[in-house]
Amino acid sequence: MSAPLSRPARSLLSYKPYWASRFGTAPFLPTSRAEMEALGWDSCDVVLVTGDAYIDHPSFGMALIGRLLEAQGFRVGIIAQPDWQAVADFRRLGRPNLYFGVTAGNMDSMVNRYTADRKIRSDDAYTPAGEPGKRPDRAVLVYSQRAREAFAEVPVVIGGIEASLRRIAHYDYWSDKVRRSILPDSKADLLLFGNAERALVELTHRLARGEPISAITDLRGTAFMAPSGWRPAEDWQELGAGDAGNSTERGKTVVRLPAFEEVSRNEVLYAKASRAFHLESNPGNARCLVQAHGEQASLRDLWLNPPPLPLSTAEMDHVYGLHYARAPHPGYGEAKIPAWEMIRFSVNIMRGCFGGCTFCSITEHEGRIIQSRSEASILHEIEEIRDKTPGFTGVISDLGGPTANMYRMACKDAKIEAACRRLSCVYPGICDNLDTSHSALIHLYREARALPGVKKILIGSGLRYDLAVRSPEYVKELVTHHVGGYLKIAPEHTEAGPLSKMMKPGMGAYERFKTMFEKASKEAGKEQYLIPYFIAAHPGTTDEDMLELALWLKRNDFRLDQVQTFLPTPLALATAMYHTGKNPLKRVSKSAEDVAVVRGERQRRLHKAFLRYHDPKNWPLLREALNAMGRADLIGNGKKFLVPAWQPALRPDSSPGSQPGSRPRGATSSAGVGERPRKSALATRHGTPASAPRPPAPRPGRDRRK
User: Fold this and answer.
1) Termini Cα distance of the chain
2) Residue 284: alpha-carbon gap to chain centroid
3) Most buried of 134, 207, 212, 347 (most Cβ within 10 A)?
């Protein structure tokens, strides 16, 4: 068997279509036997099960994967938001000829249902009418079990954000313990992680040729279980997680992570495993990872092949140019699906992020290498929206992705990129080898707004401002033509301690961008504001850090409406800090750097309260904390104090903005602007944010907030 690292990437465009291509393209992928029969199908080759409503649009993972497989000639059915308490829904389309593909949807099901305070959310953006409770907790596990009950002999393949972020032993915030890889827990045959188009197409063709799924162990971007001690061939060598040495033949080297039983008991080993995992994330040099699961009598190894090779621009154009209906399935009638309402007039221009923010899940899922569509493909999609999407008024709500301004950015040298082991291309400073030119993006903006019928192109994705300041022309272009009054950026904090644990730039870059933004707005004759995002209770943050942030907000006259409390999502480096109290950004040992962790409910509420120092409901808690910190000098009546000494009587039905001493929601000053309700707080076109006040409105694939 060839090593996954040494096998060249096969283009998605190189496969001979499967025989079922004769059936042509379905208006919508079928969700019932009646729809199958109308297409002339007697069976499905692949049945996809998802926790989201079925919206036939490339922003939604199951639609993208389904249409991709359809273009390869396979008959694909969709079971969306099935009744998981019985098996009947999983038999709705009959027995799939090749496999069940199972995903929780565009979000991890636990993030989707629970807040950072572990409280149940009141709605679900990916469900008709936003109705909650339409998917189970740990949906991949439940759906996989039901698929097995429905047809025991049919292979089960799991993927999507939930499976991707839980592919090795991981700390689970909701149960407050380390859980096994989702693969043995789900009893699936294969796990596909990241953006899995390349692996999924090859897997499906090989299964269609009769190859057993148990024999398919050489696909990049896949994980599988093997007997303890198994090797692809005798000449493979094994290294420990702490061995940073280079193998002469990296494609035949496996790095053994500490076993599940070890990382579940030993926090130092957990941090060591997290560091090793992230260092093996560059598809150009990543080695296979292996991690033992189970007691000695039933010991098995989890194998992770190297990450998938990025798609070329031609492949990206193919994927996003497939025959999408660009609408929810007609079975939903007139019910509004918030996720669809959010992205129906937006265009995803790229995927991936080289920022490496420790709290963000985009790197673990989409990777650091930017994969961009061609300008022609993007402009064609805008025209498709203009001509075919009901309700279009001439305004494109976003041209973006995980970030708004990494389009076509890449390493200047492919050999350097393939050998790089950095966790971020922009921290602690922007790499000299990174091409940060915004010229292609500027040209795209100009061509897009020149299209007939397009009145306005807005940028809704979060902006990486430390990159933007390198291109005054881009900032002027953006501010003059593409800001609808407000622009989102994410400093996340003001203090060096938490910023160093986030891998975020200091406030110097923010201040430079703010100056450029205000100058360009003034020259354009527009009153426009920056919307800054900050995180409370992030690892590495002390009470004093939050106090300094609150004082900065007050000096700059910011009164934040919505705030974010850190939510530890599986696999994120910040989650490893939260769980272990150690810093995996550096070599890990028993004497490794300790990280301050905000755990208790009261302290998490306090950190959140500092961000909303102006809310009278927070004043008692803040006064108590300031006294304990020896900062009673900040309590008093007047502008120089953080909180007043008096407390207004709050009416039960009153909003904070209507109370004495609190500015109305969204009020602004010459120095800043209050945060408006977030219109696009999403995580990935296939991803999940690491901290969010509510389920990300679906920019599936945009772990935004850069």
Assistant:
1) 41
2) 22
3) 347
Domains of the chain, residue spans: 28-233+246-304, 345-614+663-673
Per-residue pLDDT reduced to its tens digit, 416-468:
999 999 999 999 999 999 999 999 999 999 999 999 999 999 999 989 999 99
Residues 6 or more apart whose CB falls under 8 angstroms from that of 448 comprise 378, 379, 382, 396, 399, 454, 457
**Residue with more model confidence, 247 or 491:** 491
Cβ(179)–Cβ(140) below 8 Å: no
Question: pLDDT-derived band of residue 318, with 50, 70 and 90 as boundaries?
Answer: very high
By the 8 A CB rule, do 447 and 379 touch? Answer: yes
Which overall architecture, per CATH, does domain 28-233+246-304 show?
3-Layer(aba) Sandwich (3.40)
What is the three-class DSSP state of 605? helix
Residue type, 555: R
Closest CA to 228 of 184, 190, 185, 186: 184
Measured CA to CA, the distance from residue 372 to residue 535 in angstroms comes to 29
Of the candidates 143, 35, 153, 157, the residue with the CA atom closest to the CA atom of residue 90: 143
Mean local confidence (pLDDT), 173-182: 97
User: Tell me: the pLDDT tens digits for 235-275?
Assistant: 788 888 766 445 446 668 899 999 999 999 999 999 999 99
DSSP assignments along 215-233, one per residue: G----TTEEEEEETT--SS
Q: Which two tokens stand for residue 126?
A: 């990916």
* CA atoms of 157 and 598, how far apart (whole Å): 37
Do 542 and 497 meet the contact criterion of CB atoms below 8 Å apart?
yes
Tell me the three-class secondary structure of 264-297, residue by residue. HHCHHHHHHHHHHHHHCCCCCCCCEEEEEECCHH
CB 622 within 8 A of CB 605: no
The mean pLDDT value for 325-347 works out to: 96
CA distance 291 to 254: 10
Confidence (pTM): 0.91
φ, ψ of residue 636 to 5 degrees: the values are 165, 180
pLDDT tens figures, 88-145: 999 999 999 999 999 999 999 999 999 999 999 999 999 999 999 999 999 999 999 9
Which architecture does CATH list for 345-614+663-673?
Answer: Alpha-Beta Horseshoe (3.80)
Check pLDDT > 60 for residue 650: yes
Asked if the domains at 28-233+246-304 and 345-614+663-673 fall in one CATH topology, the answer is no
DSSP label of 93 = T
Name the band, by pLDDT with cuts 50, 70 and 90, for residue 74.
Answer: very high
Q: What is the mean pLDDT of the chain?
A: 90
Percent of the chain with pLDDT over 90: 83
Is residue 223 a contact partner of residue 190, using CB atoms and an 8 Å limit? yes
> Region 531-557: what's the mean pLDDT?
96
CB 192 within 8 A of CB 158: yes
Long-range contacts of residues 126-131, Cβ cutoff 8 Å, at least 24 apart: 126/51, 126/52, 126/53, 126/337, 126/338, 126/339, 126/695, 126/698, 127/52, 127/53, 127/81, 127/337, 128/53, 128/328, 128/332, 128/335, 128/336, 128/337, 129/335, 129/336, 129/337, 130/336, 130/337, 130/338
CA 229 to chain centre: 34
Amino acid at 581: G
Report CA-CA distances (Å) from 516 to 73, 320, 466, 470, 534: 51, 34, 12, 11, 21
